[in-house]
Amino acid sequence: MRISARNQLKGTVVAVEKGATTAHVRIDVGGTIVTASITNQAVDELGLAAGKEAYAVVKASDVMVAVD
Fold first, then answer.
1. CATH number of 7-58
2. Closest to 13 (Cα-Cα) out of 48, 42, 41
């Protein structure tokens, strides 16, 4: 896989919950769960299921940092 996004988090799918049109995919990345909302069609095309390896790819124009 080649992709321009630099924030690629490799992990294991722990759950796929399909709704009417959109699914929530939960990926365990080193003990932290990252959740993505993608189409049911994308879930099927990617063959996503619990136990499979996948990447959470984060592409954002801004990242904010805050402190108390």
1. 2.40.50.100
2. 48
**Torsion angle in degrees (nearest 10) through CA of 36, 41, 44, 47:** -50
Q: Hey, which residues does 63 pair with through a beta bridge?
A: none
- Domain borders along the chain are 7-58
* CB neighbour class for 22 (10 Å; exposed up to 12, middle 13-18, buried from 19): middle
| Segments of the chain with pLDDT less than 50 | none
39-59: burial string, b at 16+ Cβ within 10 Å, e else: eeeebeeeebeeeeebbbeee
pLDDT of residue 16: 98
